[in-house]
């Protein structure tokens, strides 16, 4: 009977979330192409380690700026037009890498890519809010949010083949073109559910069933930054987001310099690393839920889970010392597994302690803090590699970052205190 009822409602909204999944997958493919090609480009153009660090910083600065501005823009122009502008910008920027020849021109292309790509997650979350009732939004978000891992797996499979057969420029051109192919589906398919004539009346009522509920008052950041919990979460993201950025952009270079891995054989190590990281996201969510079901306070359960995962990152310090490729892959995989499990909990802590009207602001503010941390760390990585010629300092920083993150949460995010913000 339940299946029959669902059939009568209709399922057009799930086609929309499939579009969001592909947009997010393309988003991660486009941002990761440079990391895969970095060893070849560094040799061809004579980049120093600092040069590469500055190129990465350009993307992260733009991404940080975009994270605190795109939400407002999307609210003004709507998700349909917002996505059209954003994916057109980042696709053109991705393709523009093919014409770049200097550090400045690559940095300029990366900056434009960062501005465009920063809109993806705010736009996707807003689209889910428009097209799904509250009881279905978590599932819809989970579907589109699996795109980053899929993108991280597909990129090392696709880019080496394209670059070796056609040249590195085509790696950027072909992946950049994917966004325009996506627009061929988005433009005709997407309208607000109130206006979409392809929806049945039953599905439209189902989607809009929460519209009778009053909207929560939107709170500016200045009304929440006085709370130590906000700073604890921002500090956690500031410490750990740069490590994930490092994994995305510097692992191919590390594998190349330490283990002679190039475009012909880079696929398998990276696929293993990111496949393991998918398991971390599932484990992190399961672990905290297990502790909660055993009677532990939700926030305390998540902070304890983060501590246990932080311990898995500590051995990554030895990844720069081992001569075994697969031992290094195993140590890095443990760290990416832990990061994804941590991420599943840090986002949920926000909704555990802040009212719904403040969740978006706290997530945006903490994401900005993480992006700033990424900017600083990328610059530092380039300088450290030029001075030391080794990754041991960098992996040493990564090995303790998550323990420091746990400490910031332990000190600044009391488990039994839920924040009640004043309405304005």
TrEMBL record:
<feature type="transmembrane region" description="Helical">
    <location>
        <begin position="52"/>
        <end position="74"/>
    </location>
</feature>
<feature type="transmembrane region" description="Helical">
    <location>
        <begin position="81"/>
        <end position="100"/>
    </location>
</feature>
<dbReference type="InterPro" id="IPR050382">
    <property type="entry name" value="MFS_Na/Anion_cotransporter"/>
</dbReference>
<dbReference type="InterPro" id="IPR000849">
    <property type="entry name" value="Sugar_P_transporter"/>
</dbReference>
<feature type="transmembrane region" description="Helical">
    <location>
        <begin position="362"/>
        <end position="385"/>
    </location>
</feature>
<feature type="transmembrane region" description="Helical">
    <location>
        <begin position="12"/>
        <end position="29"/>
    </location>
</feature>
<protein>
    <submittedName>
        <fullName>MFS transporter</fullName>
    </submittedName>
</protein>
<feature type="transmembrane region" description="Helical">
    <location>
        <begin position="325"/>
        <end position="350"/>
    </location>
</feature>
<feature type="transmembrane region" description="Helical">
    <location>
        <begin position="271"/>
        <end position="292"/>
    </location>
</feature>
<dbReference type="InterPro" id="IPR020846">
    <property type="entry name" value="MFS_dom"/>
</dbReference>
<dbReference type="GO" id="GO:0016020">
    <property type="term" value="C:membrane"/>
</dbReference>
<keyword id="KW-0472">Membrane</keyword>
<keyword id="KW-0812">Transmembrane</keyword>
<feature type="transmembrane region" description="Helical">
    <location>
        <begin position="231"/>
        <end position="251"/>
    </location>
</feature>
<feature type="transmembrane region" description="Helical">
    <location>
        <begin position="299"/>
        <end position="319"/>
    </location>
</feature>
<feature type="transmembrane region" description="Helical">
    <location>
        <begin position="391"/>
        <end position="413"/>
    </location>
</feature>
<dbReference type="InterPro" id="IPR036259">
    <property type="entry name" value="MFS_trans_sf"/>
</dbReference>
<dbReference type="Pfam" id="PF07690">
    <property type="entry name" value="MFS_1"/>
</dbReference>
<feature type="transmembrane region" description="Helical">
    <location>
        <begin position="170"/>
        <end position="190"/>
    </location>
</feature>
<dbReference type="InterPro" id="IPR011701">
    <property type="entry name" value="MFS"/>
</dbReference>
<keyword id="KW-1133">Transmembrane helix</keyword>
<feature type="domain" description="Major facilitator superfamily (MFS) profile">
    <location>
        <begin position="16"/>
        <end position="417"/>
    </location>
</feature>
<dbReference type="GO" id="GO:0015134">
    <property type="term" value="F:hexuronate transmembrane transporter activity"/>
</dbReference>
